[in-house]
Amino acid sequence: MIDPIKQELIKNALVMVSDNMMVSVIRTARSTLVKANMDFSASICDAEGSMVAQGLALPGHLGATMPALKGCMDWFGADIGQGDILISNDPYAGGSHLNDIFMFKPVYKDGERICFVALILHHTDLGGRVAGGQAADSNEIQQEGLRIPPSKLYEGGRPNQTLFRIIEHNTRVPETVLGDVRAQVAALDSAERELHKLLADYPVDEIRTYMAALQDHTERLVRNCIAELPDGSAEFTEWNDDDGVGGGPVRIHVKLTIDGDRIVADFTGTSDQMGGALHTNYWFTASLTYAALRAVMPVDTPNNAGFYRPITVIAPEGSWVNPRFPAALGARGQGGYRVRTAVTGALARLLPDRMPACPGGNEFGLSVTGHTPDRRRFLHVEFHNVTGRGGGPDSDGQDAGPYWLGNLSNTPIEVIEAENPLLVEAYGFLPDSGGPGRYRGALGMVRQYRLLNDEATVQQRADRHVFPCWGIFGGQPGALSRSFFIRDGQWEPAPAKFVRSMKKDEVFRSEMAGSGGYGDPLLRDAQRVAEDVRQEKISSTHALEAYAVVVGADGTLDTAATQTLRAERGRGESR
Amino acid sequence: MSRPIRIGVDVGGTFTDLVLADSEHDRIFTGKLLTTPSDPADAIVAGIKTLLARTGTAPEAVAHVVHGTTLVTNTVIQRSGARVGLITTRGFRDSLEMGREIRYDLYDLFIEPPPTLVPRRLRAEVDERIAADGEVLLPFDGEGFLEQARRLVETERVEAVAVCFMHAWRNPLHEQMAGQILHEHFPDLPFTLSSEVAPEIREFERASTTTANAYVQPLMRGYLSRLQQRLRALGLDASLYVMLSGGGIATVTQAQRFPIQLIESGPAAGAMAASHYGRLLDVPDLISFDMGGTTAKMCLVESARPTRTHEFEAGRVRRFKKGSGIPLKVTVVDMIEIGAGGGSIAAVDNMGLLKVGPRSAGSEPGPVAYARGGNEPTVTDADLLLGYLDPRYFLGGEMSLDLAAVEDTLRERIAAPLAVSTERAAIGIHQVVNENMAAATRRYLAEKGKDPRRYTMMAFGGAGPVHAWSLARMLKIGRIIVPFGAGVTSALGFLVAAPAVDDVRSLVSRLEGLDWQRVNTLYAQMQTRASEQLVEAGADPATIQYQRHADMRHVGQGFEIQVPIPDGPLTADSEARIREAFFDTYRTLFERRVDGVPIETLSWRLSARAPAPALSLRFASDIRHDREAIKGERRACFADAGWTTATVYDRYALPAGYTFRGPAVVEERESTTVVGPGAQVRVDALLNLVIDLDPEA
Question: Is A389 within 8 Å of A515 (Cβ atoms)?
Fold first, then answer.
C-alpha cells in the first residue's frame, strides 16, 4: 500500500540529494565547463539501475545515465560491492562521448544495495588529436582520446591508483581533470552519506517499493499527458552543413507518431554514418528525443525512468544517429542539436499552437590553446551554442535567451581575459538577424576574439553556415552563421568547422545564426516592427524589406505608407 | 547617552510597524498602522506622532529613528524606477540584456526572462579599454563619452546614468574620468559608477548592480530627503538612519548614494533581532526561523551575528525560482525564503501526491478558517484541525475560526482524493510543509558545511512557534527558544542594529607572490572610507570594529569561499597563515583538503561596524502574572502520538522559572507555541520559552 504523503517525502529527499550533488560539484570543480556551463548531471538510480530522481540536468543528459550504468552492471555483474565507484566513458558501452565520464556509487543499507548515486561530468581534456576532445574531423574513436571501459575507480573504498595515473597521463591538463575527478568522487561520497541520514527511518523493502512507485507514477503522468495530445504522424527533415570532414550535407529525418498514450520517433531515412565525429550514438539520440518531447509535458514532470517508458526511439544501426564502432563521436554535441531540431520540427507540425520556430545559434564549440608569455600552457574551451527560441504562436523569440534544448551559461568576458591571453572585442546582438515573422525569431549574436600571445591553435566546431534556422507557418529563416579571421583590417571568411593556427593580433569573429520566425511577417504588428527599429534590433531597411513597414531612422512609424505597401505586397504574393 | 528614546519603523507591504524603546524606563512599546503606498512617509509620520503621544514622549527625547523600507525592492518588482541610460565599453552594450544566458526553468518553452532595466536604445558604447591586469589598452575617449551622455540626457531624457567599463574593478581610472565629465556637465544628474558600487570582477553582474542602483537612485534621493524634512517638522531633530541589507544601518546621505544596498532593508531585521537574543541569552549559534502568512525565512546566526552573503537576486519573475531575478552584488543577510506560511495552500496534484505551497491564500481571502471566502485548505486550517490553534482565541480572541468549514474542505479536497482520514490529511499537510522547510534548511546549511544539530532554533513570526517543534524534530535540533512577543520580534531588529559599512576591492592574483603592498593599500583605502562614514553616522572612531575577508579559491575553480584575513598590515609572512585559513574554511565547507593546487584571491572585503546599542527586552505592559498560568486543556494530534490531551497555557501569565512538559499549547496574541509530547519547557528570566525536545538526552 502506497502512502502518498510518504511518497512525496521520499521523493523530495531523493531530489534534494541529487541537487546537493550538483551544488557540491559546481562549488568544487575546476574546469570552466563545469563551473560556469554546468555541463554535468546528478541522479539516483534504484538497485536495478533504473533512474528514480535527477537533479537539475542538462536536457542532453536526460536519458544518458541508465545506459552507462547498464554498461557497468553488465560488465561487473555480481562483482559490485560496498565502497566501489564504477567509472566509464565508453560510448560503445552506454556512454555518450569520451569527455563525459560517468561515475556510479552503489549505496547499501543493512547489507543490501538500495540504489546507485550517479554523476556525469564533462571533463576538459582526455587526450586525443586535438585538445578538448571536440574536434569534428576525427574519423575513428581511437583518435579522440582515452577510452575508459566499465572499470572500478574505487574498490571496497580503495582507490585504483593505476587508473588515476592512466587518466593523469592521458590529459593535457592533469591538474584540472584530476581536480574534477576528485570533485566528482567527493560529491558521490557525500550523497551516499546524506542518503543514509535521510533514509535511516525507512526499512529497505519500503525504500524499494517507493522507488518503484515513483517511476510508475511518472509513467502514468506521461501517458496521461500523451493521451491528451491529438493522434497523428508528422515527418521532418533537417540538414547539418557537413559531416565534419568535408562530406555531407547530413540528412536527419524523423517520423514522429503520437498513438494513444505512446510516442514513436523513427529516424529511418537519416543518412548513413559518415566520416567525422558529429555522430550521435543511439543513447544520445534517445536523450535528445526525450529532451525535445519534454517541452510538451507538464513543467514539473519528474525526471526518472518512468518518463522514458511510453517513448520509443527507432534509429537504424549504421545510420548517422546510431553508428557502428569505431565511428568517432567527439563533436556529437553539434550533431545532437540537429537531432533535436528535427524532432522539434515534427512536433511543431503536430502541435502548431504549442511550438515555436527553430532556435538559433551556431552551436559553437571553441577551443584555443597555446602558451602564455610566461610559458604556462593555457586551454580555453567554450560552448556558446544558442540564442533564444524562434518566434512562437503568440510571442517573439527572446534575444539571447537560451532555448530549452540546452542550458549552458556563458563565461564572463572578464574571467576569460583574466585566465587567457585573449581579448574579447565584441559580444553582442546582430541586428536584422532574427527570422522575420508575425512573431520574430531571436537575434543572433557575435563574439570576437583577439589573440594577445604569439601563437595559438584555434578550433571551431559550428554549423548553420549553409542551412539556416527554419521559420514556420510563413515565418522566415533567421540569418546564417558566418565566421571570419581579421588581420590588419582584412576579413577572410572561415568555414564552420576548422582547426588552424592563429597569430598575435589576429582576430577571430564568430557570428551566430538568428532564430526562425513564426507566421507571415506581413501580419506582424507594425508598431512592434517600429519598436524593434527604435531599439536598434532591426534597421529601417530591414523593416521595409522583410516586413513592408515604413519606419524613419528615428523609429517613427509611417502608418499610411505602411498600409499601402503591405496591401501592394499582399497582392503581389497572391498573384 | 542623554536621549533615552529610539524608534524603529518597518514599512511593509500591508502594515507599517513601529517599535519604541525607552532605555530610561526599560520599556518597549509597539504600534501598527496601514502602510500608505502613495507616500510611505505619511504612515511613518502619523505612526510616530501617535506613538509619541501615547507614551508621553517629547520629540527632543528621541535619539534616533531607524527605518526599514521595502521601497527599493518594490520599485524593482513593479519596474517603477527611473529611466536609466547605461554607457559601456564599445562592444559590450548588450551584456546587460544577454546576462548569463541561462534559463531558470529548463523545460518551459515560453518563460518570461528576468527584466532588463535599460532597453537597448538607452545603452550606449564608448571607446576605451582596460585589460584584465589593469593596463590601459585604449585611452578613454572623453569627447565621445560626452556626446553619448548628451544624447541620453538631452534627447532620450534619462533621469540617471550608469557607467560600467570592462575591468573597471581592476582599474577605475576611465570610469572616474567619465564620472568627472558627468559631474561637470550635468551637476544634478544622479549617476553610478560600477567601480564604486560593485568593484568586483564579472562584467554582467557588475553592470546589473550598477544599473539597478541608478534605477532606484532618483526616487530614493527624493523620498529620504522628504522624510527627513517631515520628521524635523514634527520637532524630531533625531538622526534618521536606514537599515541596510547586510543588517547594519547607514545615514541618509550614504543611503542616497548607494540605495541598492537597501534592497533587503526590511527582512534583515528579523535576523538582527534573533542575533541580539543570541548575544543576550548567551546562545551565539542559532538558526532564526521566522514564519508568517506567506513565507518562512531561515537565517544562520553564528557568534551572535547573522551570516551574510554578497550576492542577491531582486525582482524575480518567479518568486522562489533562483535565476529568475536581477543579480546584484550587494552585501545581504544570508537568509533563505521558502514559500511556506500559514496561508500556503495544500492540494493534491495530478500524480495523486500532496503538495503544499508556494501558492498562498494570503490574508485575503485567507485560510478557510477565516470564513472570508477562502475555499482552498491551507496550513493554518490543518493546524486548527490538529488542535494547535484555538478556534475562539485567534489574534487574542479578536477573530474566531470556523472549524466545521475546515473539516469539510479538508475532507473534500485532500482526504477523499488521497483516500485517507481527515486528520491524516491534516497531519500530512503539517508534515509536508515542515519537510519543505526542513529540506530547504538542510540544503542551505549543507552549502555552508553546517550540521543543524549543533544549533538552537529561535522561532518567531505568527506561524513560527506553531511549527517549530515539528520542524526542529525533523532537523534533529535539540532546543528551541520562543521569544516573548514573538509576533513583533522582527521589529526589534531595527533597534539593535549598528552603523555599518561593507566595502570590497577585487585583486585577482595567486597567493604566492601576491603584491601585499597593494592589498595593504586597498585595505587602507577601504578603512579610511568606512571610518569616515561611520564617524559621520555618529560612531566613536575608537570603538569601530573591522573584520576582513577575502574571496579565495583554488586556481581554476569557478566559485570562491570567504576566508578570514588577519588584522594589521599584511606581508609575505602572512601568506602561510592565510593559506591555512583557506584550508580551514575549505574543509568546513567540503570536508576535504586539496594540496598541491595553487590558491588565488579575487576580492578583498572589509566590514566595519560600530558597537551594537544595548536594548533590554522587557515588555512590561503585557505581563499579567495575576492570572492563572493554565487556561485549560484540549485535544491535539501529533504525527507519532495521535490524539492526546494538551495543556493550554496563557503566555502572559507565565512567570520566570516556571516549567512544564508537552504536550502543551501556549497562547499569546499574535502566535501560539506548540509543544509536542516529551518536550520540557522552561520560562527564562526574560520570559522567553526555552523548549528542550528531548530533556533526557
Answer: yes
